[in-house]
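Backbones bend. To wit:
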Amino acid sequence: MRSSRDNKELRKRLYAFALRIVDFVRSLPKNWVALEIGRQLLRSGTSVDANYEEACGAFSKADFTFKLNTSFKEAKESNYWLRLLRDSKIVTGSEIDSLIQESREIRNILGTGVRTAKKGRK
């Protein structure tokens, strides 16, 4: 189980990631491909934190695990859209690389939490 301090730090980190995603999507080129991928990224990137918030307010261990797993999946999806933007050369530069790295780290943290939560349910 994460300590209260760790939980607060993760909540801040996920919220900061969501804000970065919002700003990043705003900066995307104004063409239909970038806008469509941007919509997908905006949904998944902000959903990571939204689902984590729901997990923190879960009424049962099963509900917590489900919401945490949803947050993990959204982090994985965000990483996919970010890599697609980079690899298709729609976006280049340090900001995309930094967001990809952050999404990878968040995905790993949440994945570890899901595995731990699932072990506790058995």
